[in-house]
Write a structure and sequence with these properties.
- The relative contact order is 0.05.
- It is elongated and about 70 Å long.
- It is an all-alpha fold.
- It has a domain of 42 residues.
- The chain has three helices and no strands.
C-alpha cells in the first residue's frame, strides 16, 4: 500500500511540474517583450513614490512639533 501511495505521489508531482512548465511558457509568450519595452520607453519613470513624500512630510511635521498621525 505504501508503494502505491508513493507512485501516486510521484505521478502527481510529475503532472504539477508539467503544468508549471506550461504556465511559464504561455506567460513568456503573452508577455514577451511587453514589460521590458515599457521599462525601456520610460513609462514607469513618471510615477511618483508617494511613500517617500509622506515620510518627508512626517519628518518635517515632527521637527515642527506636530503629530504624524
Amino acid at each position: 500500500m505504501a508503494e502505491s501511495a508513493k507512485k501516486v505521489a510521484q505521478q502527481t508531482e510529475d503532472q504539477l511540474e508539467k503544468a508549471a512548465e506550461n504556465v511559464r511558457e504561455k506567460f513568456d509568450r503573452l508577455a514577451k517583450g511587453k514589460f521590458s519595452d515599457k521599462i525601456k520607453e520610460g513609462r514607469f519613470a513618471d510615477q511618483v513614490d508617494h511613500g517617500i513624500d509622506r515620510g518627508r512630510a512626517d519628518v518635517k511635521r515632527r521637527k515642527q512639533g506636530g503629530s504624524t498621525s
